[in-house]
Amino acid sequence: MALDHDPQEALEGVSSTFVENLYQRYGDDPDAVGEDWRAVFSHLEDGAARAAAQGPSWARHDDWPPSPDDDWTAGLDPTRMTPEPKPRATETPAKAAAAAAGPSPAEVRAATLDSIRALMMIRVYRVRGHLIADLDPLRLEEPLHNPELDPESYGFGPQDRNRPIFIDNVLGLETATMDEIVAILRRTYCASVGVEFMHINEPEEKAWIQQKIEGREKEIQFTVEGKRAILKKLIEAAHFETFLAKKYIGTKRFGLDGAEAIIPALEGIIKTGGQHGLKEIVLGMPHRGRLNVLANVMLKPFQQIFHEFQGGTHHPEDVEGSGDVKYHLGTSADREFDGNVVHMSLTANPSHLEAVDPVVLGKARAKLTQRGDHSQEQVLSLLLHGDAAFSGQGLVAECFSFSGLRGYRTGGTVHFVVNNQIGFTTSPIYARSSPYPSDMAKIVQAPIFHVNGDDPEAVVYATKLATEFRQKFKRDVVVDMFCYRRFGHNEADEPSFTQPLMYAAIRNHPHVIDIYAKRLVDEGVVTRDEVDGWVRDFTNLLEDAFDASKDFRPNRADWLEGRWRGLKRPRLEERPAARRAETGVDADTLRRIGDTITTLPETFHPHKTLKRILGAKEKMFHSGTGFDWATAEALAFGSLLDEGYWVRLSGQDSGRGTFSQRHAVYVDQKTEARHIPLRHVNKKAHFEVLDSPLSEFGVMGFEYGFSLAEPNALVLWEAQFGDFANGAQVIIDQFISSAEVKWLRMSGIVLLLPHGYEGQGPEHSSARLERFLQLCAEDNMQVANCTTPANYFHILRRQLHRDFRKPLVLMTPKSLLRHKKCVSSLAEMGPGTQFHRVLYDDADMQRHSTLKLTQDDRMRRLVLCSGKVYFDLLEKRDEADLTDVYLARVEQLYPYPHEAVLELLERFANLDSVVWCQEEPQNMGAWRFIEPLLEETMTQAGSKAGRPRYAGRNAAAATATGLASTHKRQQDELVAQALDLTRS
Length: 984
Description:
Layout: H1 7-11, H2 16-28, H3 35-54, H4 93-101, H5 105-128, E1 165-166, E2 175-176, H6 178-189, E3 193-196, H7 203-213, H8 224-247, H9 262-275, E4 280-284, H10 290-296, H11 302-309, E5 331-337, E6 340-346, H12 356-371, E7 379-386, H13 387-392, H14 394-402, E8 413-419, H15 428-431, E9 448-452, H16 456-473, E10 477-482, H17 500-507, H18 512-523, H19 528-549, H20 587-598, H21 608-623, H22 629-642, E11 646-651, E12 666-667, E13 674-675, E14 687-691, H23 697-709, E15 713-718, H24 729-736, H25 739-743, E16 750-754, H26 769-775, E17 782-784, H27 789-798, E18 808-812, E19 838-839, E20 861-865, H28 869-879, E21 885-890, E22 892-894, H29 898-907, E23 913-921, H30 927-941, E24 949-953, H31 964-979
Parallel strand pairs: 4-6, 4-7, 7-8, 8-10, 9-10, 11-14, 11-15, 15-16, 16-18, 17-18, 20-21, 20-23, 23-24
Antiparallel strand pairs: 1-2, 3-9, 5-6, 12-13, 17-22, 19-21
């Protein structure tokens, strides 16, 4: 146990009884304890001897006998560092002589025991002091008595209050009386701020917190100007809510009433962060208090907020979009304090609590990467939470798991919990099993500052400390502000149905602005007239803004500014040619990239299978044929990197690939050193491939956030199996599919979802294609199911080579990764080539098929499909020699390729049937989406085939069977049905 002779470190995590017994053994025989403990006890004895010599006598005496009702808190003001000193008893000549002679060995041992006990008590206050802190403004429950915090539990009685005790500068004092010790500890740990930090393993972090909060001069102090500034922000926060309540009676606003101290606290974060190198804050928060934050922190014009209350749009009327409710909207602004400018961006969010958290983290990560900020001090992710959501939503834990991970860490997040002490109608006792909502943060050893929301100075103080801690240690930190909701869940709600006692207390509880104003008036910091004048001036400002809001018109949308400049919003009615992109790449460039991905460092020891795979890739580049899925993907990534774009791929096991197909990361078999060949294509470009934590919701949200901040990055999230995207459905529904129309926010994120029916059961077959197609409208995203490596290559490159960004949902293959017919040539990725939304029959193209098809006017049946089933159809069609059945693949399902399908239908004018074939059950897959679109196209083409027909599995509750024999039978039947094999 290397303690470096530090008594506090030695006492960490051990009981008082254990140490006293150990000291007893040391007193009997110093060699009976270890060397480190001998050094500790010797050090304490030296200090205790000095302390003993300070007093008139070390012997326990009765200079000031206690009264029967004497206790340790009597006469102590917890806001002061020390109690008023009591006069010492008069020294007698005998006592003076004894003091001059120095303490005896027995007195030194008694003094040392007192030092040990005092140090143990100090440690317990650090661990448990928050349990009796004055945190709840409503005082609904008195803190439970904790005997561990009583000096009597450590052998100290009232007679010991004024004796000097050696505490080794632990509280900034070498010696202190028990009165002084208790006063400092109660002021530090049991007043308006309660700190939890002893669960942290890093001694430096704990020491920093102790140094910041413990000692004679560490009480909460603000200058006169600082106090006046806090009061002004409280006035703005409180009277903004009052004004809205009067002007918009009965309208939901999810006001901040009862938690107004958050407004000066947020400004404290901006100011403190700016002083410590911060340049940008990415903020995420729920709906409660959002309008107040928009107005008083983000400085969104009051007249614009009032305009939106009156039903006006938040963006120019010539910009299309559905819009959203006021308390979901985001904005950005620059704030300057002390000459430091900090850019603030508030991320738009849905009502799904905590769903915005990973989006904020992803945006912050992208901005750090843009700045090249490896120290991670210039960009801060700041998240506001409600207490019930913070403890109740599993996504919070997923986000905490990112805090220390390569590729995901953002240098620490400041979490501010608005602790309403209730969740809608659910009391904490029914909502969580932990004492505090913030206990979740202990999984990453984040320090937690609990604070009373009715003490605005304490709230600002806590947030400043939290910000300093984050900037120094680059770790997550939590501020848990105890407050209350003055009204219900929203202003129209009646909370007394379920919490009558709480709301009886709230009705009789003064507003924080009144509490703090009175305090400053009493201190002489302000006058009552000044306060009334500030309120009057701010109310007049709001009235003027209210009048101006009637004629307010947003003059521009900011969604294509900054790094998005030059991009545009496309129109769905544009001809396909207007939406194409030049995605072909020169063959020499592709071969150069191929050399990079197939060349190993000289000292590298590859796996024997990897060596064989690389040899096969070399043959592809030599022959120009046989390119498989993984190689085409690597060429897409490499060519984008070569052009200076970024590529970021994350997902569970994405480095190797779930199906051992990708091998984007080579691992040395002797050292486990990692070699990532694509990073050597263009060392100035940014390439990341990450094996993510076992999370879907959090990681997809993170990658979506990254894509919001960086339009020139190909950002991909890959599911281990496609149906695992279920776990991130909120991100898909509320952000990916709808953010553009709700909030005017584009994203080019790509979802890679392995999909295909191969007998692997209901959880490893379907990526739930139907769910994505159901979400498709208003040109909101793209859904595709590619069947050739070349088409995959082009659709990935197309994401960055068009002048707009849309999310791309890709059904990716499993068995096709190694299918002999699922290959492409180098020429198919060369100059002049592009993505094809519909692929023609391989027999038509004289590729992968020896069948000679009949003439177009004699073609009897057109089978349209998407994905892997095409190869089953091709094999069975050729085997049956059906020359009058044409197979076509719809590679892009949305936007629906109307023109390409129309061209096919017009080509085959005498069809007797048009069939949609799919592997999925009838109530799943693309059928219900494609049927009306296909029928409309057939009508336009003047087709004689009637309505489109369905070939596939029957409707089912589960996505697939788990029985291999049943799977094979169903697959054979749907292929036969599609090809009409019974007729042939």
